């Protein structure tokens, strides 16, 4: 394994009292620094989970569920519900050829996946390089390499 594969980041933190997730603080700092964040920092991951297409950036568009826990969010000391990532099993089903599982089974599966999801710095670096080579990128390939080196140095053990 190369050095970048050995540096790993937990992507989500589970908030049991709200039965939802939020982006892990350290992961968010790194993806923000690498200019991978669009809103929450995990839109690009959703694209991988949805057959690698742009629909995936909306995998946590769950405003109705967020509004339902808004009062509880404030009482638990969270700033606002917009940072909450609530699994909506209906959004994670393809109704063209399925679904093959119940909402409950699908929600449990995605809970397990998100709870345990870690990504390597290699994956983040690959995404940063990909973005740097896009036509309308806000980051140059040279800047991407600088950021990758900086973060590698910062998180190397």
Q: What is the element layout, followed by pairings?
A:
Elements: H1 3-6, E1 8-10, E2 12-15, E3 20-23, H2 25-33, H3 43-49, H4 63-68, H5 70-75, H6 103-116, E4 118-120, H7 121-132, H8 141-155
Antiparallel strand pairs: 1-4, 2-3
Helix pairs in contact: 7-8
Q: Can you walk through the features of this model?
A:
This protein has 157 residues and is mainly alpha-helical. The protein has one domain. It is 46% helix and 9% strand. It contains eight helices and four strands, in the order αβββαααααβαα. The chain has helices spanning 3-6, 25-33, 43-49, 63-68, 70-75, 103-116, 121-132, 141-155, and strands at residues 8-10, 12-15, 20-23, 118-120. The protein has a two-stranded antiparallel ribbon. Strands 2-3 form a two-stranded antiparallel sheet. A hairpin with a 4-residue loop joins β2 and β3. α7 runs antiparallel to α8 (141-155). The chain is globular and about 45 Å long. The mean pLDDT is 89.
């Amino acid at each position: 394994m190369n050095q970048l594969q050995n540096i790993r980041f937990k992507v989500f933190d589970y908030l049991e009292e709200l039965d939802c997730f939020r982006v892990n603080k350290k992961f968010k700092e790194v993806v923000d620094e690498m200019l991978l964040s669009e809103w929450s920092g995990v839109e690009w991951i959703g694209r991988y989970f949805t057959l690698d297409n742009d629909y995936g950036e909306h995998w946590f568009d769950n405003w109705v569920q967020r509004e339902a826990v808004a009062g509880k969010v404030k009482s638990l000391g969270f700033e606002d519900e917009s940072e909450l990532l609530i699994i909506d099993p209906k959004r994670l089903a393809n109704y063209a050829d399925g679904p093959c599982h119940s909402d409950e089974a699908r929600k449990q599966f995605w809970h397990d996946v998100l709870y345990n999801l870690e990504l390597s710095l290699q994956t983040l670096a690959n995404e940063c390089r990909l973005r740097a080579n896009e036509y309308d990128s806000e980051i140059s390939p040279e800047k991407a390499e600088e950021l990758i080196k900086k973060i590698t140095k910062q998180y190397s053990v």
